[in-house]
Amino acid sequence: MEAGGGEVSLDVPGEAAVPESSFPGGRQTSKKSVWALLEEASRMKTEGNAFYREKNIRSAIGHYHRALLVLRGLDSEVIMSLKGFLPETSSLTPDQEAALRSTQVDCYNNLAACLLQKPSVDYSRVLDYSLRVLQRRPRDVKALYRAGVATLEIGDAQTAKQYLAQACIEHPNDVSVKKHLQKAEEKLNQELQKEKAMYRGMFSA
Length: 205
Hints:
Oligomer: single chain
Structural class: mainly alpha
Shape: elongated
Number of helices: 8
């Protein structure tokens, strides 16, 4: 899990496009438009993964964003926030909701991975995407790691330590997690020493 130069792995579990046969009733159900949109989003995510592996980060990001845009039109939380402005739509079934959230969270996780591969990293966006993942998957090691790296680069070593310590608990043998946890602890120690020096100067004056 390298943060800036090395390869940042995508979330392989659940990467493949959701097969039509996995949907109850396939295209014979009254929900075929919903399933078709879920399939489209899943396909875009899978194509984004292929671009990522080819190091075509820009195209990968574009595909993940398009997948999220498709899902946004089905997201019950978004629709509820716009209630009164949009026509009434039927709610998603539990299977549809699960498929939507799985693709959605994978896209956010993979977007964070893509941003860490760019020459100039926007760590605030990496943190935002990682937190969206953690909202649904609180123990996701990659999201915890990326949130830790982002907060450390932003300058919040204390919060970074919390994310990285949790990632280390979940994945104790990960070298990159240990390395960045050590960096966070060193940064905190430096801040503590500066604070002590400041107080010594104040009281000795």
